[in-house]
Fold this sequence. Notes:
Elements: H1 3-11, E1 27-30, H2 38-48, E2 52-53, E3 60-66, H3 74-82, E4 85-96, H4 106-115, E5 119-125, E6 130-136
Parallel strand pairs: 1-2, 1-3, 3-4
Antiparallel strand pairs: 4-6, 5-6
Amino acid sequence: MSATAGQAAEGVRSPADRFGLEPGMVVMEIGYDDDVDHELRDALIERCGELVDEDTDEVVDAVLLWYRADDGDLVDLLVDALGPLADSGVVWLLTPKAGRPGHVEPGEITEAAPTAGLQQTTTISAGRDWSGARLVPPRATSRKR
């Protein structure tokens, strides 16, 4: 095997790799519908196990929030996502890319995140039709449980 082929094999990454999630993490999913990226969901389930829904009583390490322009108030949904989130947890806000039905303007996320008590750290391509924004509570503040 050539060095180039070995490097190519190492470069093959699961869609879940971009999310920084590890086996054993508890991941809650909000906003599931038929239009979600099933390849991404399957990769996350393979990595972490079954996703829990918003009715869970568990403290979660991450929230996967599928959000479309007509899904209601983004600030309210982000605040709801914070409830079960561990202090070191992360919210991945997944929105349709530009030109896709339900696209959310980046400015809406930029305004909603701090209002909900979150800050955006990263934006990624989460699949063919979805973008992901990594949102975390500011480190300078401690949330009450």
